[in-house]
Amino acid sequence: MRRPVPERPGPGQESVWDYPRPPRLEQYAGSLVIELGGVEVARTTRGWRVLETSHPPTYYLPRSAFLEGSLREAAGSSWCEWKGQASYLDLVGGDAVAPRAAWTYLTPTAGFEPIAGAIAVMAAATDRCLVDDEVVEPQPGGFYGGWVTSTVVGPFKGIPGSTGW
Question: What residue ranges define each of the domains in the chain, with the CATH number in brackets?
Fold first, then answer.
């Protein structure tokens, strides 16, 4: 299996290869915006980032940042070895519905208690997500929920050949 060669971060950038495993949770005090169906469904200037080796940050927004009616309970759940049991939500904006595009940990494991009830969103399922007014790229591969901005360098988990990382 080929090992990834981390990109060298430039000024003001972070390498996802410097993020820890197990992941770290940190507060984020910047602008986070989510749009779907031509509607701004969420906006906040406070949230959290989960930082894990080889992954771009996954952003969690307080539930109060979401427009009323933009979140709808969805069937199913999954298990994260670090955060516990996730519950899914459909994201609704305008005439658009993104099924199971959002998730939350209602009772996260130790160390992740601050994100209890906070919402993360798959950027690929939205019109666009922004971090500090920069439109994000979804984490490659369609499975992970990281948001790629110009402030992070990879390579990122999810690209072809990264299964064993």
Answer: 14-153 (2.170.150.40)
